[in-house]
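Job type: complex structure
Entries:
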Amino acid sequence: MCRWLAYSGSPILLEELLYRPRHSLIDQSLHARLGVDTTNGDGFGVGWYGASNADTPAVFRSIEPAWNDRNLREIASHVESPLFLAHIRASTGTAVQQTNCHPFRYGRWLWVHNGLVRDFARIKRDLALAVDGSLYASIEGSTDSELLFYLALTFGLEDDPPGAVERTVGLVEQTGRKHGIEHPIQMTIGTSDGESVWAFRYSSEGRSRSLYYSTDVRTLREMYPERPRLQEVSDETRIVVSEPIVDLAGAWNEVPESSYGLVGGGQDELHPFRPR
Amino acid sequence: MCRWLAYSGSPILLEELLYRPRHSLIDQSLHARLGVDTTNGDGFGVGWYGASNADTPAVFRSIEPAWNDRNLREIASHVESPLFLAHIRASTGTAVQQTNCHPFRYGRWLWVHNGLVRDFARIKRDLALAVDGSLYASIEGSTDSELLFYLALTFGLEDDPPGAVERTVGLVEQTGRKHGIEHPIQMTIGTSDGESVWAFRYSSEGRSRSLYYSTDVRTLREMYPERPRLQEVSDETRIVVSEPIVDLAGAWNEVPESSYGLVGGGQDELHPFRPR
Amino acid sequence: MCRWLAYSGSPILLEELLYRPRHSLIDQSLHARLGVDTTNGDGFGVGWYGASNADTPAVFRSIEPAWNDRNLREIASHVESPLFLAHIRASTGTAVQQTNCHPFRYGRWLWVHNGLVRDFARIKRDLALAVDGSLYASIEGSTDSELLFYLALTFGLEDDPPGAVERTVGLVEQTGRKHGIEHPIQMTIGTSDGESVWAFRYSSEGRSRSLYYSTDVRTLREMYPERPRLQEVSDETRIVVSEPIVDLAGAWNEVPESSYGLVGGGQDELHPFRPR
Amino acid sequence: MCRWLAYSGSPILLEELLYRPRHSLIDQSLHARLGVDTTNGDGFGVGWYGASNADTPAVFRSIEPAWNDRNLREIASHVESPLFLAHIRASTGTAVQQTNCHPFRYGRWLWVHNGLVRDFARIKRDLALAVDGSLYASIEGSTDSELLFYLALTFGLEDDPPGAVERTVGLVEQTGRKHGIEHPIQMTIGTSDGESVWAFRYSSEGRSRSLYYSTDVRTLREMYPERPRLQEVSDETRIVVSEPIVDLAGAWNEVPESSYGLVGGGQDELHPFRPR
């Protein structure tokens, strides 16, 4: 079990979401409340886009537990960003190493994953063979999560993100079932190109890991006129999280089973997710 | 809150205590059951003595969480020892670095600590000044635990371990009270010279961290004739632990408040502990 | 032997100095050309001030060799700063740990050091006792370099940097000689409050580690009209380095023995340095 | 460029070869003398077999530079072994992570490599596809060296080590040439099953990295009757090294181009190596 967070909106210091909320992502690294594992201490990462859309996002990843990483604290308190993804890891078996930490990056794209490909060792080779030849050598780690990313890139993530993820999951389910695996995939996935964030929630068994998105800021302002921070951020500011980072009635909405959302650039959509 | 373990007896692979028991020390790094913190993920260490008493003990320490450290697993499954101390750390504020991991070593002596010197920043300098001039520069880390060790060495640990620890704690309490600190110290401490293990349990407030010692092996054999492992180990084998590593009725005895025990070399004593 | 660099001027990406020059600081971590040791692989650090003078500087430090640290590369290619200090370490014996990496920080002040206090173990305690009681507990590492910083803070670094460093060095020389140490100190030091950079070059024996400052930008522009980068940076831009990062005739000037320079905010001074 | 060492003979403390010789492997991590790179600071590893042949070898690997790794020093000064392989790494581009450190292990087999598969990114996928399906998911890192190991395992390393390595290199050369790579492979390789050590020296261009084996101990004893260490070790003791660890005339013999040697268990052979 991992935990992740995506932010899109007015530029803010990373620490505003990573450290300050009562149940911030960093707090969740030591004390997660939803899910089986309470500790996500097997590394972390944060990827952020700059003010200028022209740049490749920066990625800072480490195998230290997030709760005691001083460099993360330094960066979070000095770097502002209008769009970032952060992830804390609880390994499901693969090595604790920087190249297995999320977010994964390819060009302008970032990718985070919570969940697993079941019996991954048995179907890893078949899945790896499906990765485009020009992409294969760029795989640096050994996780299912990174392989899903490279499959999605193979299937056209850069042109049609939902379609590419649907094809990726379709392939995993076919391959898994061919090997007699009942429920091949369990996932929430966040991915971004620096302009929009796509967030997916799906599992073969229909009981997916938790995923929430924040209520529209205009609505929240009406509900909580006394909260100054809500007055300051832009209308289109959104947060997507594995589990809520503050207890605020009406602030969080569950992403429904087998669906995906699109956030950013004024857009705001929710669609069904159907593996192909 | 930290957790530690000391073993003295027939030579065994470290993994027999560090990994195999249901609530092994490594399991406690992720899921401690007694105490406030359930995660002890801020580094670990193990120090072991060889078969020959002539040697300095080996010390392996790392800032990784113990639960996912592959090198610890390798060493634990290949190194046998008749006497070893292991420790998993939950920092009370000082940096996560190798020199702050226990056990600390000086010559043939090892030292582990669970607890804290309260308001340590306020009295650290006074305590450090009390360390013998010839020892001061050997202090490598920044913890209260290591400083307690160097105070004990200053006060004669090598000649009279209980007396030296009593004088150390006496100094901490005097110094703390001079600075208006109500309960200056909370501790369980394990220390060894490679022949015996001394285990201390004390706190200024009289509510000390948990500490247990294993029942005499001869008694355990009678209680559990069906357990082959108990038949194999020598009569004088003993384990001292912050919290029990297996659920076995009658196997664990609490070290009483304000007392210390001596284990090893056929000896087996329990005495009151009185700070001087 | 270590290597350090200080930059003050127009905001630039850290990588412009840390990576891009032919003999950049990162290149020097693997292949230093001046001095005894060619490898500076025992950790590194960079501290940078933001555009706003109000903030505490950020500090990123790691025990990895700088040449293969991916996080440093990420940060350097995404963070811009008008004033930063960077350091690569070759340990003279103390532990390789984050708290021993430079720059050290206290409030708004950063501090880097190349050199050593000779026979440090013998005089460490005497020097530590001279640190102000309110500062002592903030010392986190075990290096001579950090202790020099806290002595300078004790002696008024924040009000009179040159005077405080002169008093610090005076104390080290007195203390060292009292212990029969012939040449107690060898140093180049860089320190900043976010507005100015002070750079010191001194050694008891009068043969100090190398230190250079860049020629006035207006002069360089006349000398090298074809270099576009020189046209872009502001008039008062200055670099101070342990060894030149590019081969450019006339670009580098040695800081004289026993002297210090002040750079930043339009100021530009060179003075004799006299331990008190 | 990396450096490696294999030892087979009377049980010795690892430190006797890793630290004590004038040009020990650890010294070579900072100051290698042969070859292009003088620094091998991108991680290290040591794998050792126990006294009992029944056990899997232990492997200790770390991404720290070997010259300052305290845990390596502890282990080397407390662990004795009759057969061990050690390796210091200078990355040729792949990530610095534990799973990329040598030795690699599979069952009872260890594997170390110095050299590279040229244009590895271009042919990695083709080579990976040739790995047996049951082995593929055990690949944890991203290096050419580990992939060579898994190819050799696929081609029967456990039954016919020289034949398996010849087939592996044959495949790499065919695959490389198919992609227009002139000299696809450069290598010295050491591998062991705990009883024998096989050492290979080969490169497509016929100018392979250096590799030496020690002279027969009986001969060395006659040459150097005054060296007590030579009197103590068993007749069949042998060392294979990338570069000599002591300057001793007549002690080191170059492994010829395109050949391999077999050491251990009284055997002692040298044969031509012909990729198939």
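Summary: DSSP finds nine helices and 13 strands in chain A. The mean pLDDT of chain A is 93.
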